[in-house]
Amino acid sequence: MKMDVEELIGRLKKRYRVNFFYRSRDPFYVLISTVLSQRTRDEVTYPVSGRLFERFNSPETMALADVKEIEDLIKEVGFYRVKAQRIRQISQILLDEYKGKVPDNMTNLLKLPGVGRKTANCVLAYAYSIDTIAVDTHVHRISNRLGLVNTKTPEQTEDALKMYIQQDMWKDINELFVKFGQEICRPISPKCDICIVNDMCPKII
What we know:
There is one protein chain. This protein is mainly alpha-helical. The chain folds into two domains: 5-18 and 133-194, Helix-hairpin-Helix base-excision DNA repair enzymes (C-terminal) (Endonuclease Iii, domain 2), CATH 1.10.1670; 27-127, Hypothetical protein, domain 2 (Endonuclease III, domain 1, Orthogonal Bundle), CATH 1.10.340.30. The chain is 57% helix and 0% strand. It has helices at residues 5-15, 27-37, 42-55, 59-64, 67-74, 80-97, 106-109, 117-127, 137-145, 154-164, 170-183. Helix 2 crosses helix 3 and helix 9 packs across helix 10 (154-164).
């Protein structure tokens, strides 16, 4: 018997405020911030994004920026040299191919360097309010651990969750599961004794 998803989401919402990760809904800010967040903790990503956008806040200014200056502004994030190159490449592509606008569809977002399905789904959900599920390692792990899905890859998890969870909950999944996964449902030594859904978890019951 599968878990009551509405009850699960309701409990997580009581504990974790859903703020859609970003201070701004500007699509360019969401896109670049999500690229910066790859393999980087949120508490690092937020101030770095803010500092970068204080200096360069549009595709036009970012495309003209010196890569070394971008590197200096984002050096706390993982793989900052690679990301600095990608950020400038993305900005130039947006200018050359999309009139400076961030695409609002999966197909074109995936054409941008450094953008995978998780990043693209974050842009669609948080910048354009499109109902979708951004699946990262937390979402993939927790969805399988809680028995919501039985999948091998994040792509399979995304498809399975969309079939199982009602659409108006999709945008909440990533942020709630990421916070839950960082605090309680950790990959190693999860804090099951203080988990707010341990009475629903098939690993415990």
